[in-house]
Amino acid sequence: MVHFTAEEKVAVVSLWAKVNVELVGGEVLGRLLVVYPWTQRFFDSFGNLSSESAIMGNPKVKAHGKKVLSSFGNAVKHMDDLKDTFAELSELHCDKLHVDPENFKLLGNMISIVLATHFSKEFTPHMQAAWQKLTTAVANALAHKYH
Amino acid sequence: MLSAQERAQVAQVWDLIAGHEASFGAELLLRLFTVYPSTKSYFKHLGFCPDETQLLTHGQRMLEAVGVAVQHMDNLRAALSPLADLHAQVLRVDPSNFPLLIQCFQVVLASHLQGEFTVEMQAAWDKFLTGVAVVLTEKYR
Fold this sequence. Notes:
The complex is a heterodimer of chains A (147) and B (141). Chain A has 147 residues and is mainly α. Chain A has helices at 6-16, 21-35, 52-57, 59-77, 82-85, 87-96, 102-119, 125-143. Chain A has one domain (6-143): Globin-like (Orthogonal Bundle), CATH 1.10.490. Chain A is built from 8 helices and no strands. Chain B is mainly α. Chain B has a single domain, classed as Orthogonal Bundle (Globin-like), CATH 1.10.490. In chain B, helix 2 (21-35) packs across helix 3 (52-71), helix 2 packs across helix 6 (98-113) and helix 6 runs antiparallel to helix 7.
């Protein structure tokens, strides 16, 4: 089980309180689909993903991005209990969605980059380290039930 | 490998870094060591807690090499050949570390450029730096 120090928890929680989940979620997913185009393979039903502007402006991308990032909000509330918190979602991603867990790492990295664009200097190396620890732990929790 | 548009994006971002290689490089290394502590294993010569001078010196060297890559995007193999030899024969940095450095590079760009760090810039730089990493590890075996 991953152990977060008190400072790491404070860092994550304090930054999360300022995150516009709808805006940031859409940006994170949009950037993922643009920078790593092969990730579009999971989103055939999302309509127009033919260009950078189409992707970033796509309402389904924004809505799904918000959904995914909201789930991260749950992670922030349960940092000591991520495997249980994401057990059901892990089964879903394996059994129904068939998502290679590598994609969870890509998404996690994208969250850090987008947070950096929004929070700039406030996204210090220690802040980045705390978030990297969280996104890695969430990725592992989501992969935990794979079989 | 890089389209004309992508090269333009790379060059545009480099214009913002040029002249600030040392401070940019120092921040890059500081983030790398803080977020991915195992990477410090390759920098024993900088000591367990590299000081600012060491980070600036080494950071500058690394960013200047990136600058060389930017100037020779259409011929990375030739331009980076000596560095590729160095990495293959002397440094032997495990290839898995290059994505970690690239991630930190993107975070530094993002935190400095903020909203101006467009998705096209991010895509072009990710592709460009990944290409550099491929060239630097190509002679490993």
